[in-house]
Amino acid sequence: MVYQFSNPGTNMATTIAYVHLLFLVIMTSGLSFHKAAGIETEKVALLKLKQGLLDPSRRLSSWVGDDCCKWRGVVCSNRTGHVIKLNLRSLEDDGIDGKFGGEISHSLLDLKYLNYLDLSMNNFEGTKIPKFIGSLERLRYLNLSAANFSGRIPPQLGNLSRLIYLDLKEYFDLNAYSDESSQNDLQWISGLYSLRHLNLEGANLSRASAYWLQAVSMLPSLSELHLSSCGLSLLPPSLPSSNLTSLSVLVLSNNGFNSTIPQWLFQLRNLVHLDLSCDELGGSILDAFPNTTSLEKLKKMGSLCKLKTLILSENDLNGEITELIDVLSGCNYSSLEHLNLGFNKLGGVLPNSIGNLYNLQSLLLWENLFVGSIPISIGNLSNLKELHLSNNQMSGTIPETLGQLHELVSVEVSKNSWEGVLTESHLSNLKNLKDLAISNNPLLPNQTLVINISSEWIPPFKLKYLELRSCQVGPKFPAWLRNQIELNALVLRNTGISGTIPDWFWKLDLELDQLDLGSNQLSGRIPNSLKFSSQSSVYLNRNHFSGSLPLVSSNVSSLNLRINSFSGPIPWDIGERMPMLMELDLSQNFLTGMLPVSIGNLYGLMTLHVSDNYLSGEIPELWELWDGVPNMLVHVDLSNNNLSGELPTSVGSLTALTFLFLSNNHLSGEFPSALQNCTILRVLDLGGNRFSGNIPGWIGQTTPSLWILRLRTNLFNGSIPSQLCSLSSLHILDLAQNNLSGSIPSCLGNLSAMASEIEIFRYESRLMVLTKGREDSYRDILYLVNSIDLSNNALSGGVPEGLTNLSFLGTLNLSINHLTGKIPDKIGSLQRLETLDLSRNQLSGPIPAGMASLTFLNHLNLSHNNLSGRIPTGNQLQALDDPSIYRDNPELYGYPITAKCHGGDDCPGGYHQNEDEDGAEVEMKWFYVSMGTGFVVGFWGVCGTLLIKESWRHAYFRLVYDIKEWLLLVIQLNLARLQRKPNL
Description:
With 984 residues, the chain is an alpha/beta fold. The chain has 10 helices and 58 strands. 15% of the residues lie in helices and 23% in strands.
C-alpha cells in the first residue's frame, strides 16, 4: 500500500474551511431554531387575538394550520418570515355582520416586528382604545378609524416615534361623543417625530382649541393634516413656527372658527389641498393676503400656484372674487382643479380670467350673490366636468361656448334670471353629460328663457338627471327625450307644456327616482306603465289630468296629484298597492266616496292631504292599529269636504301629529278628547263644522306648543277656558261664531307670541283668516299673522286691559257680543294693529285719544255702540273717513260724521250747540264786513289812482282807444274777406 501525503499548507487551508463551514452550519441551525420559535410565538399571539374577537361572519376561519403567514389579513416579511402587517379592516362588502367586535388581546405585544396595524371600520362597541398599542414601537402605520371605540385617545400613542401614518377618524362611539370623557388634548403628538399623515376628523379636540396649531407645528415631516369636525373654535392669525413647510393637505372643515381667513394659510408654499368649508368664516377672501403684499407680488411668490383643491364653501364670505381668480389664473402654470366657493355671500360678476384656469375640473359657485352672465371664456376650460352656478342672481344669455366643454358631466345653473334662447348648439358636443339642471327664478313674471330644441335632434349624451324649471319648453312635450333611456330623474316643471303626454314616453324602459311634471297644462289620463325605484317621488300637481286616480307604483313614497281633475273614489286598496307612501296629496280634485280604510296600513305616512274634494261619510277608524306603534304622521288635511260624524278616537294614536285641518265639513260631537294624546300639535283647525259642548281647558296643558287654534263657526258653548292663556306660542286664536258666554279672560294678555317677533314657521297648508273685514287665505306668510277673533258670540263684561300688552297683534275682532264698559285707554299700545272691530256691543265712554297713534290701522269698526265725545283726530284716523265706522253712536261727534255735540259736560271747553250757532252768526257778519272792505279797497285802489294822477289817466284811456281801433280793424277785414268768397 502506498500512502500519498498532501502539501501541509493545503491541508491547513482545507481544515480551516471545514471549521468555518461547520460554524456556519451550527449558527444557521441556531438561527433557524430561533426563527421558528419566534414565528411560533407570533402564531400563538394571533390565535389569542382571534379568541378575544367577536367574528360573527367567520372572517378569521382561515386562521388554522402551521403557516400563519397564509392567514387572511396577515402579512409576513419575505426575508425574516416575521409578522409585519395585520389588516383586519372591515370592508363594505363584509356587511354589518362582517365587523369585528369584542376585546383586543394584549398578545399583540408579542408581534415584535409589527409595523402595520389596521382595525378600522369595525364595531368594538364603545370599548376604549387599548393603551398597550403605544408599546408597538415598530409601528409605522396605525388605522383605528370608525372602529366604534370610546373615551379619550390614549396619550401612550405618542410613544410611537416611528409612526408615519395615523388615522383616528371618527374612532369613537357616536353615543359617547358629547361625553366629557371623550374630550382630547394634543400634548401627546409631540413625540411623533416621523409622522407624515395625521387624521383626527371627528375627534373631540375642544381642550386643544387654544394650542392645536402650535402642537401640529412640532411635527416637521407632516404633509397631510385632517382636523375636520374637531370642535376647534380658534383659528390663530399667525403661525407659531415655520415647521409646516412640508404640509400639502390641510382639512379644517366643520369647526366653529367664526373669524376671517388668516394670512398664513396662503403662505404654505407646498399646499395642494385646502378645505375650510363650514367654518363660519366671514369677511373677504382677500383678507387673507397681507396688507403689505400687492397681488402682483403674490403672483411672484406663487403661494397659490400649487393649489389643486380650494374649498371655502358654506361660510359667510363676501365681496368679489375677481382678484382671487386673477391671481390663480396668473400663475405660470395653474394647478387648480377644484374650486368650491358655494353657499356664501360672494358677489360681483365672474371675470373673463376664469377661462385661464385650464386644469379646472369642478367650478362650484352655487348659492351666492353673483350677477351678470356666464363669461364666454368658460369655453376654454376643456377639462371642466362640473359647473354649478345655481341659486345666484345671474342673468343674460347662456353662451354657446358652453357646448365646447366636451368633458362636462354635470351642469347646474338653476334659479337665476336667464334670458334668450338655448338650442341644441349649446349641448351638441357634451357627450359625457349626465346631469343637466337649467331653470329661472320661479318668481319672475315671464318665462324669459326659451329651450328651443328641434324635435328631430338626437342628443350625443345619455342623461341620468334632467331638470328644466320655469322656462319655456312647450307647447309640446320635448321629443328629444326619446333616446334618454338612462334617466333616473325627470323634472319639467312650469315649462308651458300642454296637451297629452305622448305614448312613447310611457313606453320608455325607465326606472325613475323622481318624476315632476307639475305646473303645466298637461291633460289626459295617467297609465301605470312606468317603473319607479324604491322611495321615489311623483309630482303631477297643477295640471288638467283626469280620469280615475292612478296608483303608479308600489315603490313610490311621495305622490302629489294636487289641483287636477281626477274623479271617482280613492281606490279602496291604496294602502296595499302603495305601501311605501310617506306623502300623499290628492287635494283640489273631484274625488268622491269615503276615505279608504286601507290608508291605515300606511305606517310610514307623514303627510295626508285630501282637502277640497267631495268626499263624504264618516272618517273611519284609520289608525286603530297604530296604538303603541311608532308612527310619523305629521300633517293631516281633510278640510273642505262633506265628511260627517264624530272624529274617530284612533286619532289619539297619532303621537307625531303636528298639523290637523278638518274645517268646513259636517263633523259633529263634542271636542275630540283623543287629541289629548297629540301633545306636539301646532295647528288645530276644526272651523266650519258642528262640534258642540264646552271648549276643554286641557288644550292649554296637553298641547303647549300650539301656534293656531281655529274653532270658528261651530256650536261650542260655555266660557272661554283660562287655560288657553298658557299657550305661549299661540299667534292665531279664532273662536268666532259660536255660542260662547261669560267674560273674556283677562289673562289673554299673557299670549307672549303676540307680543314679540315671531320666528319663521313653515306651514304645510293654507288657512282662512278674517282680517281687514274679509276672509283671506294665507300660506307662505301665515307665520306673520297675529290675530284674536272672538266675534259673534254672547260674551259679556269689559274689554280686558291686558289685551293691550299684545304689541304685535294685527287683528282684534270682538264684534257682535254683549261687551260693556270703556275701550281700554292703552289701546294705542297695539302698534302693529291693522284691524280693530268692536262693533255691535254696548261699549260706552270716549274713544281713547291713543287710537290716533295706531299707524298700521286700516280697518276700523266701532259702530252700534254707546260711545260718546269727540272722535280723535290725527295720523291714521284721518285716512279712515268712512262715517259708517262710527254709525249708531248717538253721542259721538266730530270728523268724519256730521253730528253735533248735544250739550252737557262732555262737550270740550263748555262747548254747546247754541254757542255753535252764535259763533256761526258772528262768522257770517265778519264775512260780509271783509267782503265790503275788499270791494272798497279794490275799486278805489284803481279808480282813485286814475283820478288823482293825470299822466296815468291819459295813458290808460290811450290804451283803451288803441284796443278799440284794433278790434274795429280786425272786424272790417274779416267782413271784407267774407264778401269776396261768393264772387270766387
